[in-house]
Amino acid sequence: MPSRTDVILDAARRAAAYLEGVSDRTVAPSPDAVARIAALREPLPADPTPDARVLALLDDIGSPATVANAGGRYFGFVNGGALPATVAANMLAAAWDQNMGLRVMSPIAALLEDIALEWIRELLHLPQGVAGTLVTGATMANLSCLAAARTALLSKQGWDVESQGLFGAPPITVVVGEEVHVSVQKALAILGFGRNRVVTVPADSQGRMRADRLPKITSPSIVCLQAGNVNSGAFDPAQEICPAIPRDLAWIHADGAFGLWAACSPSHAHLVRGFDQADSWATDGHKWPNLPYDCGIAFVRHPAALHKALSMQAAYLPASNDREPAQWTPEMSRRARGVEAWAAIKSLGRSGLAELIDRTCRHAQRFAEKLQAAGFEIVNEVVINQVLVSFGSPEKTQAVVRAVQADGTCWCGGTVWQGRHAMRISISSWVTTEEDVDKSVDAMIRAAKHV
Ligand SMILES: *Cc1c(COP(=O)(O)O)cnc(C)c1O
Prior knowledge:
Blueprint: H1 4-21, H2 31-36, H3 51-62, H4 84-96, H5 107-123, E1 131-135, H6 138-156, H7 161-164, E2 173-177, H8 182-190, E3 199-201, E4 221-226, H9 238-241, E5 250-255, E6 280-284, E7 296-300, H10 303-310, H11 338-373, E8 377-378, E9 386-390, H12 394-407, E10 413-417, E11 420-426, H13 434-450
Parallel strand pairs: 2-3, 2-4, 4-5, 5-6
Antiparallel strand pairs: 1-7, 6-7, 8-9, 9-11, 10-11
Pyridoxal-5'-phosphate binds at residues 78, 137-139, 181, 183, 226, 228, 230, 255, 257-258, 284, 296.
């Protein structure tokens, strides 16, 4: 009978072999590989399958059908890679099998979460004393922050939203930019604010909220700012907007899913100026800092508001004086994602993170220069790691996106930016080299010639 460690060693070997080969294959899985996954559809297994066979099936059929996100030429959405130390930490943490709901469930996971949150707070130049929490992604981070905002603004008016609910509560105005991310709209919808019950501030050509069009805030309000537009990478001018908002009436929330990490780099930190004045911040570990999925991070300036919004009591839950993770997040049981967050920052350090930010931004400039030199139009100001390129008419651009994806040298998605079709290039992975950029540019030029 094989021991339970045999399959784990086998998994480690297979994982290593996968990573060895991931940069040499097509980025999108081949049609053949995708066709083969249908073999996994079978009736509910009546009897056990040996672990070694389970893993072999996953690797033989599953690995070729993955998208090569772990290689250096995946530029879709804003998907980072996963740093080697974080993949390794993730495997060890899976063996630990810790439930990070309560400190008593795992003193080590709780400590690593505390340390990671404090390091991230410092890296992002946020004030001391803010409450932090690790969630699945920036969507849940936005939700957590906006729940705290709702609690704080209604408490001030004598309304306890956790016990009384939202029906009949005093109104709260929500102000967003025209280019607000859909995940903020989703969070607003879940929290009862309504996607459309918002005041929308026009944006400029880069998607930045126009400070001169901000409405006068005269009643309790939440103002949602953005650090890093998902298409253009642009930052709302927080430095101009925040001082114009009366702090006794309004809560300022910043969605900085990837953009907030510009703070780590001395040459890009000017972009986040003013964002430290917000009341809450949502960001991601799994984008620019290259943690594995899933890891979002929420910070709230007013710990009592976050705690009131997300805590719960029961006789079987220990009420310690320490920070109990489950009292600060929408979840109760959760995986110990602080382990990887700690490993990422410990492995890179402040200088390594700055270098990662700068390097991916340099790659973005290289893409923009080379594509422009080849006669294509870059339709955004490339301020960080995001490049939007048009190949001509909407039809032509869409056809080039499809051709690039099918070619497999790299992978980019499409978008419509300010009414124009564009291909999105997001350089978010630690793996990407200049050679990857050059190979990808060649593939794009080739695709544009042939469609
Ligand atoms: C990606 C992104 C989100 C959502 O993040 P998830 O981690 O996918 O939930 C929110 N806001 C912005 C600006 C983003 O780029």
